[in-house]
Design brief:
By secondary structure, the protein is mainly alpha-helical. It is about 50% helix and about 10% strand. The protein has helices at about 1-15, 20-30, 50-75, 85, 95-115, 130-140, 145-155, 210, 215-225, 230-235; strands at about 160-170, 170-180, 195-200. It has a three-stranded antiparallel sheet with strand order 2-1-3, sandwiched between helices. Strand 1 and strand 2 form a beta hairpin. The longest helix is centred in the N-terminal third of the chain and has 24 residues, at about 50-75. Mean pLDDT is about 85; it is low at about 1-30. The chain binds fe (ii) ion (FE2).
């Protein structure tokens, strides 16, 4: 939103105040924006605290968006492309420095946008659909067993990264990615391996350190209290 306003302002200035909407529309093409959370910063209390959410969304995610926009603005080949188009063809970016910037910040933008839509306010988590329950039971035996395996993957992700529950070849699979690598990336470490993401958890310290410090397993346990199972279930199939 801030970026778009910046483009509009620049467009207005460049056009001498004339044709604002046309200039803004053209200037904003291909620009990425910080999405709304869809709930308040305090909606996930007491499981994920408001201060963490405000900093996580307003500072960390916003910075990924800002840096992605800066990178794309200077790369003619990337202008006008959607984020899945860019992340799905990272290896086509020949400038290695630009590729790294897009990988980190484009991945950060995609991962966080997906993460916010995976969470529901406390008390509104719901439960997995019948189809998702059947898939989970078929692969892991029970929801609790799946959560145990997911927690183990979260605990063993060294440093910063993400843990995912994916659907691949009709089966569920738990995996993790380092840094801001996203499941939809191709041409990097996650190339073709992860499948379609159903659910993802940010295990960077910025996601939990204020409240949980070094106790990542406590944060993972709290995460299950605010998973939006309706949204996750809709991703299946
Ligand atoms: Fe994060």
């Amino acid at each position: 939103m801030l970026k778009r306003r910046g483009f509009i302002k620049a467009g207005t200035f460049a056009a001498g105040g004339l044709l604002v909407s046309a200039s803004a529309g053209k200037a904003a093409e291909g620009a990425f924006e910080l999405p709304e959370l869809g709930y308040g910063f305090d909606a996930l209390e007491p499981y994920i605290d408001a201060a963490t959410m405000e900093i996580h969304h307003g500072k960390h995610h916003a910075t990924y968006v800002l840096k992605l926009n800066e990178a794309v603005a200077g790369a003619a080949d990337l202008k006008g492309k959607s984020l899945p188009e860019i992340l799905g063809n990272l290896s086509e970016i020949k400038d290695k420095s630009l590729m790294a910037t897009v990988r980190n910040n484009g991945g950060g933008h995609w991962n966080h946008s997906f993460f916010w839509k995976t969470l529901a306010p406390a008390g509104k988590s719901g439960k997995p659909s019948d189809d998702l329950t059947a898939a989970i039971n078929g692969e892991y035996g029970s929801l609790a067993k799946m959560q145990e395996a997911f927690g183990a993957a979260a605990a063993s992700r060294f440093g910063s990264g993400w843990v995912w529950l994916n659907e691949k070849d009709g089966k569920l699979k738990i995996s993790s990615t380092p840094n801001q690598d996203a499941p939809i990336m191709k041409g990097v470490v996650a190339d073709g391996e992860l499948g379609k993401p159903l659910l993802g958890l940010d295990v960077w310290e910025h996601a939990y350190y204020l409240k949980y410090q070094n106790k990542r397993p406590d944060y993972v346990a709290a995460f299950w209290k605010v998973v939006d199972w309706e949204a996750v279930s809709k991703r299946l199939g």
